[in-house]
Amino acid sequence: MGHQLGDASAPARLAAPDEGIGRDELALATRNHGLPLEALRYDVTPPGLHYVLTHYDIPYVPDDAPWQLTVGGRVRRPLQLDLAELRAYPQVTTRVTLECAGNGRALLTPRPVSQPWLVEAVGTAEWTGVPLRLLLAEADVEAGAVDVVFTGADHGVERGVEQDYQRSLPMDVAIGTEPEVLVAYAMNGAALPPQHGSPLRLVVPGWYGMAHVKWLREVTVTDTPFTGFQQSVAYRLRQESAEAGEPVTRIAPRALLVPPGFPDFMSRARVLRPGPVQLEGRAWSGRAPVTRVEVSTDDGHTWHEAELAPDDGRRWAWRRWRFAWTATPGEHVLSARATDGAGHTQPLDQPWNRGGFVNNLVQRVPVLCLEAGETA
Amino acid sequence: MGHQLGDASAPARLAAPDEGIGRDELALATRNHGLPLEALRYDVTPPGLHYVLTHYDIPYVPDDAPWQLTVGGRVRRPLQLDLAELRAYPQVTTRVTLECAGNGRALLTPRPVSQPWLVEAVGTAEWTGVPLRLLLAEADVEAGAVDVVFTGADHGVERGVEQDYQRSLPMDVAIGTEPEVLVAYAMNGAALPPQHGSPLRLVVPGWYGMAHVKWLREVTVTDTPFTGFQQSVAYRLRQESAEAGEPVTRIAPRALLVPPGFPDFMSRARVLRPGPVQLEGRAWSGRAPVTRVEVSTDDGHTWHEAELAPDDGRRWAWRRWRFAWTATPGEHVLSARATDGAGHTQPLDQPWNRGGFVNNLVQRVPVLCLEAGETA
């Protein structure tokens, strides 16, 4: 009886065949945004161009508002730290490429109804903060601890479950050094912008975005596996909704290219003129360093080695690549394909899962090369 | 024969009845983004939350790249100014609420196929720059000048027309003081972010966003009316495509409210619990100062006066309003309606035009108030 949360919060569903993007998906798309692909040119993404995905509302935290991070649960010495205290710990800055686990979802058939990303849910930033392992060492984790749970200040309901956003990491990942998890208070050398977790967020280099809990308030050590909504219900790879599914963890390899030429406003189709074109882009993998990028200019029929920028030792950031192409009049489809050191590569046919996660289908960029000398 | 621009660039069209948002509209929605409505709480919008609409690509301008602004055409003393020279002119800072002319387009029936905004294409910033009238005075405009044309560095094709983005203002607006047009080099006290026109943009307080030319390179005085694409083809109010149409100019009044309670992730439906709720929001008009905001909590059947924040003299920025409501269990639809000093108010039924411009339909925010004591 009465008015239930479920009245406002429906189960997950798949779009019907030929069902266009709905009002609900559009409302998410106008709030959250991707990296405009031309911004792949920046080594470090300006914060306003970095992709954003927020589950609930962005918490309103005035600049001078106090903020406390608690470290508790199965620890011998619980901590309560304000921002000044966090800044007094040793500081680490890591360049990290962050990608949403749902990137590519809107290209799936059938389409899981959720944030409708095409390919642009990515960005790279310099994150500065305290290594989480130092905070956990200071808090003195008890024997038998298994998970570390991270709680953000963002509150909402999802498939009927009211919640603060929470995710966990296994203890070995939380205290690991490859990657080294950060409690970050700066992005590109400045305070975090609101949409990126101001004033504190977790950064888990190499992992998809759902692990990088924003507006971080609590770190809780548990002696049983965490089974919260975002861990056990969402962010699992499943074919059928009744399956337990595999967890979503590290980022699969992907390459994207800067669309060459200039766009049509409405279709985003690319237009260029005949002659030499320097194709360029970025490639990344959270699983192992990128070792190879191949380019196709004939819709995947033939592939050619791209030139990788020298390894700059920034293991968790994307790597630049280049390929010299000569455009000839006609229609072409450009693609790039990344392979990492563990042998993972990108598929030409996307395997499907019900949540629309961990997609890394090879990008297709249709371009129209005009006849020589043709003007508008 | 051969490959034509038109192959990549289709005419404007209207969506068919019940046609969902298409891939092309989605591609625009993942690039451009609105103000997350909870960010209406900020007096001045953090740059990454301010709405963004870019017609073509965001030009890549490295921080240390030289930039020249030319002021030419029908002037006696053409200018060529770098950023340091522009900063040497008298500096003005104005707080301006900027709204996209297409805000609300995706709510129209039939829906013009273009950037599919719901209601969130707005933001407020402190813009700092040189008054345009000072530059035009220095350049010494010739008698008989009628328009001032502004050219940005963004290049693309739209409905078959290849172009740099260009808009004009009539001379009296360009040299006016109400509003005072700025050539702006700072936003909220910092250099312009790439998506907001780095390093220079025009700011025309009170006018819709299409007038605020980003990546500004050229100011050209003309002695004939400017008839470029963005002036004479796009941004006109028309019922039929063959009409000349009326130009889109100043912002019509609008109020938006901060959606109360917390959201469902997918539907963005709002959930709250019974009791007092302080409703709040912002209201603005480019046509005359906002003089009244009314609130409805019963889907527009009855209206009540909201409390307007004191007039702070910032004529071109939105004004805060508040309304004390007591939520009772059940479903409610909240709305706010702004009226300005010239008697313009917001419609409850949206007049339609083919481009989907100048919409200011009253916002509807459905909320679900749970039974007292109900928990998840």
Explain how this protein is built:
The structure is a homodimer of 376-residue chains. Chain A is mainly beta. Chain A folds into two domains: 5-247, Alpha-Beta Complex (Sulfite Oxidase, Chain A, domain 2), CATH 3.90.420; 254-369, Sandwich (Immunoglobulin-like), CATH 2.60.40.650. Helix content of chain A is 8%, strand content 33%. Chain A has five helices and 22 strands. Chain A has helices at residues 23-31, 83-87, 132-139, 171-174, 229-233, and strands at 69-73, 79-81, 92-99, 122-131, 147-158, 161-170, 182-187, 190-191, 201-203, 216-222, 236-237, 246-247, 254-257, 262-263, 270-272, 275-284, 290-296, 304-305, 307-308, 319-327, 330-340, 365-369. A six-stranded mixed sheet of chain A has the order 14-15-22-21-17-18, with no helix packed on it. Chain A has a five-stranded mixed sheet with strand order 2-1-10-5-6. In chain A, β17 (290-296) and β18 (304-305) form a beta hairpin. The first copy, chain A, is globular. The mean pLDDT of chain A is 96. Chains A and B meet through α1, β5, β6 and β14 of A and α1, β5, β6 and β14 of B.
- Report the portion of residues of chain A in β strands: 25-35%
**What is the CATH level 1 assignment of the largest domain in chain A?**
Alpha Beta
Output the number of helix runs of chain A: 5
Q: In terms of structural class, how would the helical and strand content of chain A be classed?
A: mainly beta
Q: Globular, elongated, flat, extended or rod-shaped: what is the shape of chain A?
A: globular
Distance between the first and last residues' Cα of chain A: 65 Å
| C-alpha Rg of chain A (nearest Å) | 22 Å
Query: Assembly state here?
Result: homodimer
